[in-house]
Amino acid sequence: MSGFSHTPVLLDEVMRYLAPAAGETHLDGTFGGGGYAAAILRTGCTLWAIDRDPDAIARGAALATQYPGRLHLVQGGFGDMVALLAEHGVERLDGVVLDLGVSSFQIDDPQRGFSFRHDGPLDMRMGRDGPTAADLVASLPEAELADTLYQLGEERLSRRIARAIVVARAQAPITTTLGLAEVIRAVVPKDKSGIDPATRSFQALRIRVNDELGQIERALAQAAGLLAPGGRLVVVSFHSLEDRLVKRFMVEACGRTASPSRHDPRGLLAREAVDFRLLTQRAIRPGDDEAHTNPRSRSARLRALRRLDAGVRA
């Protein structure tokens, strides 16, 4: 499978919970390297695949030729999946898989500007439109920049970093990944865990550039609405902000919210019927072997739910 040697995280677990079968219609909302897509297609089902990155869509052309009429590639954000699929007459799905975050192809390409391991333009866009990370670094007020680093990167030293960036950009524009990383490293001590001091700040900027959390919230709601009875939603996340959104959505969709206090009048109201059931009582983690062979999988968390069959309620 030329161009599709990429091994996706938790592939066996994704396939177990998604359970695609011949004749079904599924959606891979984050096509990326096509690893999940290739495995799903081998089961004989029809697959729609969405990706914001035109490079990913171009890579998918080779896979599409192997499965004529069964792989349909669509460029766009998965947070717009309802509208994107409606353009092709698709209103119901038997399964949806979402692999959140940045793809290995994007991380490994210095010209995309996602990583500080190699120097490249400070871009970070998953697509090709909108402001780049360099634009944000150059224009955000200090307080807003600090809030972004703290809220989206969970960076405790966000104010110190924001001040350093403002001072540095006053002297010369910060336009490269290594340029930004050096500014951050100069004011943030090394972590005992070995994590690079720039890691959390780069995560925060990437999430903001791509509106990742907004995309996730919209995608979860739309995916659930698209599922046919018996349909499955499987989501793989890679950091706590993503996983919290997924966990909260699935728990609420399955009616696992706490009952109101007996003193709260809402407790007198009939609870709405539940249309979904959790397939994972807790997040599924990679095994030791996978974590060892693929270090990027170590932070992965898988959660899944299933729409109940018609007439069945939990």
| Estimated helix fraction | 40-55%
CATH superfamily of the largest domain: Vaccinia Virus protein VP39
Order of helices and strands: HEHEHEHEHHHHHHHEHEHE
Span of the ends, CA to CA: 42 Å
* Mean model confidence by pLDDT: 91
Q: In this structure, how is the largest beta sheet organized?
A: 7 strands, mixed
CATH class of the largest domain: Alpha Beta
What does this molecule look like?
By secondary structure, this protein is of the alpha/beta class. The protein folds into 2 domains: 11-105 and 212-307, Rossmann fold, CATH 3.40.50; 128-209, DNA polymerase, domain 1 (Orthogonal Bundle). It is 40% helix and 14% strand. It is built from 13 helices and 7 strands. It has helices at 11-18, 35-41, 54-66, 81-86, 104-108, 133-139, 142-153, 158-171, 177-185, 199-209, 212-226, 240-253, 288-293; strands at residues 25-28, 46-51, 71-75, 93-99, 227-237, 276-278, 301-307. Helix 7 packs across helix 10 and helix 11 (212-226) packs parallel to helix 12 (240-253). It starts with 10 loop residues before the first helix and ends in a 7-residue tail after the last strand. Mean pLDDT is 91; it is low at 1-5.
